[in-house]
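Researcher: Here's my situation. A collaborator sent me these components and asked whether they could plausibly form a single complex. I don't have experimental data yet, so a predicted model of the whole assembly would be a useful starting point for our discussion.
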Amino acid sequence: MKKAVLSLFLIGVLAFAVVASGCVSKEETTPTTSEQPKETTPAKLIWVSTQLNPPEERAFVQEVLLSEFKKETGIDVEFIAISYTDLATRLEAEETTGKVTIDVIGELHGGLDYFNSKGWLMDLSNMPALSGRTFISTFEKYATIGGKKVYVPWMSATYVMVINKKAFDYLPDGLTKDDVMKGTEKWTYDAFLAWAKKLKEATGSPQVGFPAGPKGLFVRFLHGYIYPAYTGYQAKAFDSPEAVTMWNYLKSLWPYVHPASTTWDAMSDPLLKGEVLIAWDHTARIKNAIETRPDDFVVVPVPRGPKGRGFILVVAGLAIPQNAPNPDAAWKLIDYLTKPETQVKVLEKVGFFPTVKEASGALPAGPLKILAEGVAAQSSTPDAVVAMIPNLGAKGGEFKAIYKEAFTRIVLNNEDPATVTKELGPKLKGLFEEVGIEVP
Amino acid sequence: MKIKSEFLPYLLILPAFAYLMFFVGYPLAQALYLAFTQNGAFSLATVRRAISDYYFWTALKYTLGLAAIIVPTQVILALVLALVMNKSFKGRDLSIYALVIPLTISDVAAGLIWYSMLSPYGFLNKLLMNIGILDNPIYFFGYQFRHMEFLAIVLAELWRATAIVFVIILAGLQMISNEYLEAAEVFGATYWIKLRRIVIPLLKPSIQSALIIRTLFAMQVFGIVWILAGRDIPILAGEGFYQLTEIKDYGVASIYALVIAGLSILLGALYIKFMKAEYLEVKR
């Protein structure tokens, strides 16, 4: 009798396990294209991307870019939007088992750099030349790692300052509109503070805004802009005396920053509503303001600090995995995606900037031109300290959290900057040690 | 087939036992393992990492603080409402339905409703600005307005979760036999004396269960706070979630979960110890 009960129980457990495993292993199985002869057009190219993942952007990729690509070449492409961690896991699995299904990877520089270090990416230098375009040299330089052409620069983005033209009426002594527009020696963080102060005194309320809300990108300002500007590094000099000077500067700036900054995730709305006259944010997140009222706003380089003008350059690239099933068709897709016309479309629709010079020239006068000019002015300042977002993989969240915590405690809770940075510094450097990359 | 009667009780509780072992016992063991071991050996490193975090103590403080404000307010509010609703008047049923509606709404949905009402250009601010009372919106959200965020959370929680306390207390009220109240009236007791000497003591079992349920829920409060304040007002469940999803530190996340479990057990035990239910029949 007991046996019967036991076996019933076991059957139940077994049934549950079967159901559960069915739920868990829901990984998309794609038809293996590797069995087909290589030269013919494949049934379907698999393009896996960590970029253009929001539903709206995904629809744009599928309905505009890929349908047009199909018309031109007759090749079907399956676009798979994926997170960085999922991509890394999938690529590792495919490369180690030798059953590669991914044809093209769209990822940020940092991720591709890491994949390359693992030997998962193909050397693209032997591929046919891409005609009719000149890649911007900075991007080309980053894409070649150790003499190997790892990826083709695809899209770029950065963070800039947007200024409502009204703010120019309140410029502090010694700073001209031209200084700000071109990013000269005089356009410093101290001049910015004087301007913010004057704006508040003249208008009665703070006129500077940052996206310091829960989903805002203010943390990029901290590690990629003001830290390099004051210390020369993003993280290496996290708890240096220069960093303490920087935090004290931010403390003195904060009274002139709109208090609702800690609620804002994107600066487009506050600019349009006139809540602030000066704002800093990601290009994609201020695009709407400039498109809505192109005559009211200008995009300018960020101010400089004692060590130069720190700013972040985000580059996404297209790469082909080692042993990918259809490298020739994949190259055609890369060719199509980096054509100046396609790049302009991407800029217009999603606000990512072209990586080829011809595309910037093809822009019609108007809001996007304002944006593109601001970005170009920032990139070409002579005192630039370019920062790339470090690729910490799963530790990226912790990296951001440390800067955010330092900001909250020092600037908002008025704790001592030296103590807080001394406390958090080892934690930050520990992250880089754990992942095994150099502290930037 | 005959089953020996001595095995029967065990067999009957087996499904429930298996269920609890699988869905409570196993995760609990896993959490303890994650929290107290490192490389397979016992270690307090994770605990140290958790409690040296600035957010740990802040989260504990805010979780207990929110509970200390919300739970008593809810009980008093629910008691008053239940006393009103226990009388018969026109439209009583409709009022009860209206009061209970928030109970059917999930905490995240409730958070979103309140967020859209209180946001800078939400319903409330728009209304006040259109009438001309305000020039600039009142900010309820953002780190620099934490006291307002706190207020918004308290308001939303009161609106959403008072109903459950209300239902429990109303049920308790309706169980009180009219004989006691009539007897008291014979001796000339006023409304207040009846309330203090008869109704409240008889309600103690209901109040106790309402308090236990509400306090346990207050320890694990998450959705509303996460929607309305994010990490501006850290709370235990929110920090656990954050450690798990953003930081990917499973050990520290387990410690948050264990702290919530520990607090719940402790507070539940305290309620049971200090709020012994009283019954008129046995009281001397």
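Model: Some features of this prediction you could bring to your collaborator: Chain A has two domains: 45-157+314-371, 158-313+377-435. The domain at 158-313+377-435 of chain A is CATH 3.40.190.10 (D-Maltodextrin-Binding Protein; domain 2).
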